[in-house]
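[job 4471] stage=fold_predict status=RUNNING
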Amino acid sequence: MGPNGVHHLAIATRDMKAQIEFFTQVIGMELVALYWMHGVPEARHAFLRLDDACSLAFVEMPAIAAIEPELGRTHAGSAAGPVAPGVMQHVALNVASEADLLALRDRIRSQGYWVMGPINHGMCKSMYLAAPEGIALEFATSVAPIDGDEWIDPEVVALCGIDAAELARYRRPPAFVGQGGRVPQPDIDRRPAPVFPPGMKEMIRHMSDEEIAARLDFPTPPVPRRAAG
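[job 4471] inference complete, writing structure tokens
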């Protein structure tokens, strides 16, 4: 039970076409979805396939175009750069093997992009480059499953203010038995919550899960396949 991977990572863009051009032609990913973002006026959403259950996504809307990137605040610039808390510092995409990593390096360089690596980090081998709009991009291939006994550094644990009991909880989270979705919704102000458009938070506060789903579900694709026959 619980998450078993990344379904999609959504990155803001002011130039959807440029991102699609880069990730399809330079990196070799397939565009599998491009449509109006559900429930968000004037927003466009794109999905680029990593595998059948995992995508890299982009969001473009007029408000994004008005925000100027700022190195060290909105963008890290590299995997070693600072950025505001809560913001993606860099994104690393998985590659199946070192041979595939080198083939991807050839593809990227053949398109005129500078790329560094592979660099051996022990748990993985990685290479680094900049994608359009300053995205700090990494491609990595795993060398072996990560062994916490070797990769959890006691010095760093202490600097993070984590004691032995807390570390044990973090390494082995307690089991939980679900109740089929019957756990009641806590108050929306009890913990951090999404930021809603004006007035929506008070409306949604009193709605049931079924009422929210009835209002926000968009199960039909924008270009449905025609029935055979």
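[job 4471] summary: The chain has a mean pLDDT of 93.
[job 4471] exit 0
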